[in-house]
Amino acid sequence: MPASLQQREHARWRLPLLALTVLLIVLVPFLLQRVADRRVTEAAAMVVHTLEVENTLQMLSAAIRNLEGAGLAKAAGATAPILAERVAYSESQVGPLLDHAEELTRDNPRQQVRMGALRASLEQRLVQIDRVLAATPAERLGEIERLVENFPVQAPISTLIQTEREILAERNAVAARVQRQARVLAWGSLGAQVLLIFGLAALALRDASRRTAAEVMSRRADARASVVLDTVREPIVLVDAGLRVVMHNAAFAELFGIEGDVRGTPLGETGEAWRDEETLRRLRDVLLRQRELWDFERRQRTVDGVERVMLINARSMELPDRDDVVALVTASDISAQKASEGHIRELNRQLEGKVDQVSDVNRELEAFSYSVSHDLRAPLRHIAGFADKLGRHLGDGIDDKGRHYLDVIGGSAKRMSALIDDLLVYSRLGRSALRLQTVDMQSMVEETRAMLDANNGIDNPGHHVQWRIAHMPIVIGDDNMLRQLWTNLLGNAVKYSVGSEPAVIDVDHRLGDEGLHHFSVRDNGAGFDMAYAGKLFGVFQRLHAASEFSGTGIGLASVKRVVTRHNGQVWAESAPGEGATFHFTLPANPDARQGASNT
Fold first, then answer.
1. Which H/E stretch holds residue 94?
2. Residues 6+ apart with CB under 8 A from 383
3. Distance between CA atoms of 549 and 455, rounded to whole angstroms?
4. Are 238 and 329 contacting, i.e. CB atoms less than 8 angstroms apart?
5. Residue 160: C-alpha distances to residues 59, 61, 64, 175 (Å)
């Protein structure tokens, strides 16, 4: 993400984060303090509740003792009116106090059980007190003994009070712990608030420092961009959606004669060169539709009055300090290039004319070669025929010298006929059109090898040729031409290896770069000196004497013509006495139109 977009995202989230931080500083400690206060209040309420239970039980115990004391005094014979009041008052207090104690201890099941036992014992004890008061003097002592011995009340009350005091101790401990926790929470909240405030201050200082550094870097970047823009020799101008100039470089001002500050000025008002409606329309299209303008050629008259061919390019872009889209426009002077292109087109036209002339000459030479070769065959047949007839006519009457002359005439005629035949083949390879089809090179090489083995058995009995033929591909080419190529190459390998026993001929293939088929034929024959390799593929060029190896010197020229017609290359590697290797390449899909041209 660009730095400007990151800054915008940061600025957009800064205010919500600040508000959330303040909310945490104020609200969270308040809520935590509320929770702590509530727990302290609950703990204090439980302590008060326990004290109230104990107080109620103490009042109940006092009411029972007061009731028993007044009853026993009356039983003893006392007749004071206050005793009746005490009995009546105590009886009126016992029931409500007992009910209130039961109500207060409902939160403790064990205390409720004890309160139930106390109620039962107390009710029976009150009944016994009534019996004591109603008994005759003789029965009164027995009833008092039963009252004292049975129906205990003070012990259950003491147990209840002791249990409540234990509960009170526990609740006091809980209340103290809650208060300590509340104090710790209060101080912790205060510390957290202080830390948050210091953190916000540090963030604010860092943000201010970063903003200051960013502003400094932005000013430096703007200055650097301006310097770089002014050093570019290609005219550059930035325009906004209204085609008003945002900024430009020195080359733009120099070429179009702009003086002073033209920022905010419509581009069409900066000079005559930019008043072209088609150019302005295309620039608006770039800004409105977010498109790009590439290599738009227009003729513009610059400040020096020269009409130049300008290549205008434009693309929309966003600037970090603007919310709208601007267009970066470049204007390249291609006047010299256009002039050069015109000159090149004229040279090409002239070259095409020369090529046509050369093609015509080549065709005439081919026709002349064919005509000469064809017309020479009849005189040669006559020479050979009459030399043979002359030999038969003279019979045994001819001497050795005459016989030698006749042999020379016949041999020369045959050699001349072979030369003419090879010339006709060479001419046909150049004149005939390519008939492209799939050719199985494996079958073609095997057939050529079989033919050469048969001829070798007749011409050189006892000479053995060892063949090593790799896997051959299927290619696209002219069947007749490729057959002639293999006949010449493999025939040469057999011919020039006749002095080696056994003769070893390697035929190899590999797939080269860009799908090229690379073929090679290597023998262990006589070889040749690479100093004369440049003459190897010329017509009638021979590197060995005719008495040493027969031939016309046209075979390798025919090989080169076939390979060239198929858009390939041919070359050789050798050393005297070390054999020779002939290489040629064929493309996977030769261009028939290029191969159809004569070479």
1. helix 81-104
2. 409, 413
3. 16
4. yes
5. 13, 11, 15, 22
What tokens appear for 259 in the block? 């003086």
pLDDT in tens, 124-164: 777 767 777 776 676 767 766 666 666 676 777 777 777 77
Q: Are 314 and 329 in contact (CB under 8 A)?
A: yes
pLDDT of residue 521: 93
Comparing C-alpha atoms, which of 549, 572, 552, 551 is closest to residue 560?
572
Query: What type of residue sits at position 505?
Result: I
**Which value, to the nearest 10 degrees, does the dihedral of the CA atoms of residues 201, 206, 209, 211 take?**
-100
Note if the bond before 502 is cis, omega within 30 degrees: yes
CB-based contact 140:75 (threshold 8 Å):
yes
Round to the nearest angstrom and report the end-to-end CA distance of the chain: 60
Q: What distance in Å separates the CA atoms of residue 183 and residue 456, rounded to the nearest whole number? A: 119
- Structure tokens of 549? 């190896």
DSSP 8-state symbol, 369: H
Question: What is the Cα–Cα distance from 436 to 478, expressed in whole angstroms?
Answer: 5
- The more confidently predicted of residues 567 and 47 is 567
Instruction: Give the torsion sign (CA, 377, 382, 383, 385).
Output: positive
What CA–CA distance (Å, rounded) separates 263 from 563?
Answer: 67
For 162-198, the pLDDT digits (tens) are 777 777 777 777 777 777 777 777 787 777 777 777 8
Q: Which two tokens stand for residue 375?
A: 């017309």
Is the pLDDT assigned to residue 545 strictly greater than 50?
A: no
Could you give the CA distance from residue 244 to residue 172 in angstroms, rounded to a whole number? 83
- 494-520 as b/e: b if 16+ CB within 10 A: bbbbbebeebbbbbbbeeeeeeebbbb
Report the chain's mean pLDDT, rounded to a whole number: 76
Q: Find out whether 357 and 334 touch, Cβ atoms under 8 Å.
A: no
User: What letter does residue 544 receive in the DSSP assignment?
Assistant: S
pTM attached to this predicted model? 0.39
